[in-house]
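Sample log: NAD-dependent protein deacylase.
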Amino acid sequence: MTRRNLVILTGSGISAESGVPTFRAADGLWEGHRVEDVATPQAFARDPALVQDFYNQRRRHLVGVQPNAAHHALADLAARWEGDFLLVTQNVDDLHDRAHAETPPGRGFELIHMHGELLKAQCTASGRVCDWPGDLAADEPSPFHPAGRLRPHIVWFGEMPLGMDRIERALAACDLFVSIGTSGAVYPAAGFVQQARWAGARTVELNLEPSLGSRLFDETRHGPATEVVPVFVGELPG
Ligand code: APR
Protein backbone atom coordinates (compact mmCIF):
# COMPACT_ATOMS: atom_id res chain seq x y z
CA MET A 1 0.00 0.00 0.00
CA THR A 2 1.32 3.44 -0.87
CA ARG A 3 1.45 5.70 2.15
CA ARG A 4 0.81 9.32 1.27
CA ASN A 5 0.07 11.27 4.45
CA LEU A 6 3.31 11.58 6.30
CA VAL A 7 3.88 13.11 9.73
CA ILE A 8 7.42 13.30 11.07
CA LEU A 9 8.20 14.25 14.68
CA THR A 10 11.72 15.25 15.62
CA GLY A 11 13.43 15.87 18.95
CA SER A 12 16.82 17.03 20.11
CA GLY A 13 18.52 13.77 19.06
CA ILE A 14 18.36 14.85 15.40
CA SER A 15 20.49 17.91 16.17
CA ALA A 16 22.91 16.14 18.53
CA GLU A 17 25.46 15.41 15.82
CA SER A 18 25.37 19.07 14.78
CA GLY A 19 26.63 19.88 18.28
CA VAL A 20 23.36 20.96 19.92
CA PRO A 21 23.00 19.28 23.33
CA THR A 22 20.01 17.03 24.04
CA PHE A 23 18.05 17.45 27.27
CA ARG A 24 18.15 14.24 29.26
CA ALA A 25 21.60 12.82 28.48
CA ALA A 26 24.19 12.70 31.28
CA ASP A 27 25.74 15.91 29.88
CA GLY A 28 22.38 17.22 28.61
CA LEU A 29 20.82 20.63 29.19
CA TRP A 30 18.63 19.51 32.08
CA GLU A 31 21.59 18.02 33.94
CA GLY A 32 23.13 21.45 34.51
CA HIS A 33 19.85 23.30 35.11
CA ARG A 34 16.63 22.76 36.98
CA VAL A 35 13.64 23.10 34.67
CA GLU A 36 11.84 25.14 37.33
CA ASP A 37 14.71 27.69 37.33
CA VAL A 38 14.91 28.40 33.61
CA ALA A 39 11.96 26.98 31.67
CA THR A 40 8.73 28.06 33.34
CA PRO A 41 6.73 31.32 33.33
CA GLN A 42 7.25 31.44 37.11
CA ALA A 43 11.03 31.34 36.67
CA PHE A 44 10.85 34.26 34.22
CA ALA A 45 8.74 36.30 36.64
CA ARG A 46 11.12 35.52 39.52
CA ASP A 47 14.50 35.93 37.81
CA PRO A 48 14.27 37.23 34.24
CA ALA A 49 18.04 37.80 34.01
CA LEU A 50 18.79 34.13 34.72
CA VAL A 51 16.20 32.92 32.20
CA GLN A 52 17.25 35.35 29.47
CA ASP A 53 20.88 34.41 30.01
CA PHE A 54 20.13 30.69 29.67
CA TYR A 55 18.47 31.28 26.28
CA ASN A 56 21.00 33.94 25.20
CA GLN A 57 23.75 31.35 25.57
CA ARG A 58 21.80 28.76 23.61
CA ARG A 59 20.99 31.34 20.90
CA ARG A 60 24.64 32.35 20.56
CA HIS A 61 25.63 28.69 20.29
CA LEU A 62 23.38 28.24 17.23
CA VAL A 63 25.53 30.54 15.12
CA GLY A 64 28.32 27.98 15.11
CA VAL A 65 26.30 24.86 14.23
CA GLN A 66 25.11 23.52 10.89
CA PRO A 67 22.32 21.20 9.77
CA ASN A 68 23.50 17.60 9.43
CA ALA A 69 22.75 14.75 7.01
CA ALA A 70 19.51 13.89 8.84
CA HIS A 71 18.09 17.44 8.52
CA HIS A 72 19.09 17.46 4.84
CA ALA A 73 17.54 14.04 4.19
CA LEU A 74 14.19 15.27 5.54
CA ALA A 75 14.35 18.49 3.51
CA ASP A 76 15.07 16.42 0.36
CA LEU A 77 12.19 14.09 1.21
CA ALA A 78 9.79 17.01 1.57
CA ALA A 79 10.83 18.33 -1.84
CA ARG A 80 9.91 15.06 -3.58
CA TRP A 81 7.07 13.68 -1.42
CA GLU A 82 3.83 13.59 -3.39
CA GLY A 83 1.35 13.43 -0.52
CA ASP A 84 0.77 15.52 2.59
CA PHE A 85 4.02 16.22 4.39
CA LEU A 86 4.15 17.68 7.89
CA LEU A 87 7.33 18.01 9.90
CA VAL A 88 6.73 18.71 13.58
CA THR A 89 9.76 19.51 15.66
CA GLN A 90 10.14 19.91 19.40
CA ASN A 91 13.46 21.61 18.71
CA VAL A 92 13.87 25.34 19.11
CA ASP A 93 16.96 25.45 16.89
CA ASP A 94 16.64 26.49 13.22
CA LEU A 95 18.42 23.54 11.64
CA HIS A 96 15.37 22.13 9.82
CA ASP A 97 14.67 25.64 8.46
CA ARG A 98 18.24 26.03 7.27
CA ALA A 99 18.35 22.58 5.64
CA HIS A 100 15.15 23.44 3.80
CA ALA A 101 16.54 26.81 2.69
CA GLU A 102 19.57 25.01 1.22
CA THR A 103 17.39 22.56 -0.77
CA PRO A 104 16.23 23.30 -4.34
CA PRO A 105 12.53 24.19 -4.37
CA GLY A 106 10.25 21.19 -4.37
CA ARG A 107 6.73 20.20 -3.58
CA GLY A 108 6.19 21.88 -0.25
CA PHE A 109 7.63 21.99 3.22
CA GLU A 110 5.42 22.49 6.22
CA LEU A 111 7.27 22.79 9.50
CA ILE A 112 5.79 23.40 12.94
CA HIS A 113 8.08 24.36 15.82
CA MET A 114 5.71 23.13 18.51
CA HIS A 115 7.98 24.28 21.37
CA GLY A 116 8.83 27.66 19.82
CA GLU A 117 11.94 29.10 18.21
CA LEU A 118 15.11 30.35 19.81
CA LEU A 119 15.67 32.97 17.12
CA LYS A 120 12.35 34.68 17.84
CA ALA A 121 11.06 36.78 20.72
CA GLN A 122 7.54 37.30 21.99
CA CYS A 123 5.86 40.33 23.57
CA THR A 124 4.53 39.53 27.06
CA ALA A 125 1.65 41.99 26.66
CA SER A 126 0.41 41.34 23.11
CA GLY A 127 1.76 37.88 22.29
CA ARG A 128 3.23 39.22 19.06
CA VAL A 129 6.33 37.47 17.78
CA CYS A 130 9.33 38.89 15.91
CA ASP A 131 12.72 37.65 14.68
CA TRP A 132 15.39 38.09 17.33
CA PRO A 133 18.87 36.87 16.40
CA GLY A 134 20.76 38.57 19.27
CA ASP A 135 20.69 38.63 23.07
CA LEU A 136 17.63 39.64 25.09
CA ALA A 137 18.15 41.93 28.10
CA ALA A 138 16.58 41.02 31.45
CA ASP A 139 13.76 43.46 30.79
CA GLU A 140 13.96 43.98 27.05
CA PRO A 141 11.33 46.55 26.03
CA SER A 142 8.72 45.36 23.55
CA PRO A 143 8.36 47.22 20.24
CA PHE A 144 4.71 46.10 20.19
CA HIS A 145 3.25 47.34 23.46
CA PRO A 146 4.33 49.98 26.00
CA ALA A 147 3.58 47.67 28.95
CA GLY A 148 5.19 44.61 27.38
CA ARG A 149 8.69 43.24 27.39
CA LEU A 150 10.27 40.63 25.18
CA ARG A 151 10.74 37.03 26.30
CA PRO A 152 12.18 34.12 24.33
CA HIS A 153 9.61 32.62 21.95
CA ILE A 154 9.87 29.30 23.74
CA VAL A 155 7.03 27.13 25.03
CA TRP A 156 7.88 26.66 28.69
CA PHE A 157 6.65 23.90 30.96
CA GLY A 158 3.04 24.62 31.82
CA GLU A 159 2.38 26.45 28.52
CA MET A 160 0.44 25.29 25.45
CA PRO A 161 2.47 23.83 22.57
CA LEU A 162 2.03 25.60 19.25
CA GLY A 163 0.20 24.40 16.13
CA MET A 164 -1.76 21.68 17.91
CA ASP A 165 -4.88 22.04 15.70
CA ARG A 166 -2.91 21.38 12.55
CA ILE A 167 -0.92 18.58 14.17
CA GLU A 168 -4.06 16.81 15.42
CA ARG A 169 -5.65 17.01 11.96
CA ALA A 170 -2.55 15.61 10.30
CA LEU A 171 -2.30 12.77 12.82
CA ALA A 172 -5.95 11.85 12.29
CA ALA A 173 -5.30 11.44 8.55
CA CYS A 174 -1.82 9.98 8.88
CA ASP A 175 -0.64 6.89 6.93
CA LEU A 176 2.96 6.96 8.07
CA PHE A 177 4.30 8.42 11.31
CA VAL A 178 8.05 8.66 11.91
CA SER A 179 9.57 9.73 15.22
CA ILE A 180 13.22 10.78 15.20
CA GLY A 181 15.59 11.60 18.05
CA THR A 182 13.18 12.02 20.93
CA SER A 183 13.05 10.19 24.26
CA GLY A 184 9.24 10.24 24.48
CA ALA A 185 9.37 11.85 27.93
CA VAL A 186 7.35 14.98 27.18
CA TYR A 187 3.66 15.19 26.23
CA PRO A 188 1.79 15.94 24.06
CA ALA A 189 4.50 14.94 21.53
CA ALA A 190 5.05 11.61 23.29
CA GLY A 191 1.40 10.75 22.60
CA PHE A 192 1.51 11.38 18.84
CA VAL A 193 2.51 7.78 18.08
CA GLN A 194 -0.65 6.51 19.77
CA GLN A 195 -2.82 8.98 17.85
CA ALA A 196 -1.17 7.89 14.59
CA ARG A 197 -1.85 4.24 15.46
CA TRP A 198 -5.51 5.02 16.09
CA ALA A 199 -5.60 6.54 12.58
CA GLY A 200 -4.23 3.26 11.22
CA ALA A 201 -0.77 4.62 10.38
CA ARG A 202 2.40 2.61 10.15
CA THR A 203 4.70 3.90 12.89
CA VAL A 204 8.50 4.01 12.76
CA GLU A 205 11.03 5.06 15.38
CA LEU A 206 14.53 6.23 14.41
CA ASN A 207 16.53 6.91 17.56
CA LEU A 208 19.89 6.23 19.14
CA GLU A 209 18.26 3.90 21.66
CA PRO A 210 14.73 2.65 22.42
CA SER A 211 12.55 5.55 23.58
CA LEU A 212 10.07 5.29 26.44
CA GLY A 213 7.28 4.51 23.95
CA SER A 214 9.31 2.19 21.71
CA ARG A 215 6.84 -0.70 21.94
CA LEU A 216 4.17 1.44 20.22
CA PHE A 217 6.14 1.53 16.98
CA ASP A 218 5.71 -1.06 14.22
CA GLU A 219 9.35 -0.68 13.32
CA THR A 220 12.34 0.64 15.26
CA ARG A 221 15.80 1.38 13.95
CA HIS A 222 18.41 2.36 16.48
CA GLY A 223 21.54 4.33 15.61
CA PRO A 224 22.79 7.89 15.07
CA ALA A 225 20.36 10.08 13.15
CA THR A 226 22.92 10.98 10.47
CA GLU A 227 23.11 7.28 9.59
CA VAL A 228 19.61 5.88 10.09
CA VAL A 229 17.57 8.83 8.77
CA PRO A 230 19.17 9.09 5.29
CA VAL A 231 18.93 5.29 4.85
CA PHE A 232 15.27 5.18 5.91
CA VAL A 233 14.36 8.20 3.77
CA GLY A 234 16.15 6.65 0.79
CA GLU A 235 13.84 3.64 1.03
CA LEU A 236 10.66 5.73 0.80
CA PRO A 237 8.97 6.26 -2.54
CA GLY A 238 8.95 9.74 -4.09
N1 APR B 1 20.81 10.29 16.82
C1 APR B 1 19.55 9.89 17.16
N2 APR B 1 19.06 10.00 18.40
C2 APR B 1 19.84 10.53 19.35
C3 APR B 1 21.16 10.98 19.08
C4 APR B 1 21.64 10.83 17.75
N3 APR B 1 22.86 11.21 17.39
N4 APR B 1 21.69 11.45 20.23
C5 APR B 1 20.76 11.31 21.18
N5 APR B 1 19.63 10.74 20.65
C6 APR B 1 18.37 10.42 21.32
C7 APR B 1 18.54 10.00 22.77
O1 APR B 1 18.80 8.60 22.83
C8 APR B 1 17.19 10.37 23.37
O2 APR B 1 16.27 9.30 23.27
O3 APR B 1 17.59 11.58 21.35
C9 APR B 1 16.72 11.53 22.48
C10 APR B 1 16.77 12.88 23.16
O4 APR B 1 15.86 12.88 24.24
P1 APR B 1 15.69 14.15 25.22
O5 APR B 1 17.02 14.59 25.71
O6 APR B 1 14.67 13.78 26.21
O7 APR B 1 15.16 15.32 24.24
P2 APR B 1 13.73 15.50 23.58
O8 APR B 1 13.04 14.19 23.41
O9 APR B 1 13.93 16.35 22.38
O10 APR B 1 12.98 16.35 24.69
C11 APR B 1 11.65 16.74 24.45
O11 APR B 1 11.65 18.03 26.44
O12 APR B 1 12.62 19.44 27.97
C12 APR B 1 11.79 19.37 26.89
O13 APR B 1 11.16 21.14 25.55
C13 APR B 1 12.20 20.20 25.71
O14 APR B 1 11.68 19.81 23.38
C14 APR B 1 12.22 19.22 24.56
C15 APR B 1 11.38 18.08 25.07
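Observation: Residues 21-64+116-154 form a domain with the SIR2/SIRT2 'Small Domain' fold (CATH 3.30.1600.10).
Observation: The longest strand covers residues 116-123.
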